[in-house]
Design brief:
By secondary structure, the chain is mainly β. It has a single domain, classed as q2cbj1_9rhob like domain (Jelly Rolls).
């Protein structure tokens, strides 16, 4: 069974993606990540965020949920249990999010599709 949840954005569909950066994340027991954006509005670097979860047999009591908010004023958000094979994709500068405290080791790969913001002698993203 596939469960999907959607949050609608007013953004245009053309994203102009250029490159991808990622990292492997290991949250140990007690680790969390405070509410944040993956890109600041208008910075035009990270455009699309993606998280792939690698945790087998994850239960809701294990904590470590990703909470994705529709805005800064949203206090409820949508909780995503980081179970094996779950993939979350969202616009980096549109949706604040956080990771709740993990009660067991939690693994994921987080990545960001970027646009090319190279100007003059500054290459972005760096090679």
């Amino acid at each position: 069974m596939v469960k999907t949840t959607s949050i609608v954005s007013k953004s245009t569909p053309f994203l102009g993606l250029f490159s991808f950066e990622s990292h492997f994340a290991h949250y140990q027991v007690g680790d969390f990540y405070k509410k944040h954006y993956d890109a600041f509005r208008g910075e035009a670097n990270r455009v699309l965020s993606i998280v792939v979860y690698l945790n087998s047999q994850w239960q809701s009591e294990d904590g470590g949920e990703l909470v994705l908010y529709q805005s800064d004023d949203d206090i409820e958000g949508i909780k995503v249990i980081p179970g094996l094979g779950t993939v979350v994709v969202f616009l980096s500068e549109e949706f604040p999010h956080e990771v709740l405290k993990a009660k067991r080791d939690r693994f994921s790969i987080a990545g960001w599709f970027r646009v090319n913001t190279s100007i003059a002698n500054k290459v972005d993203p760096p090679v």
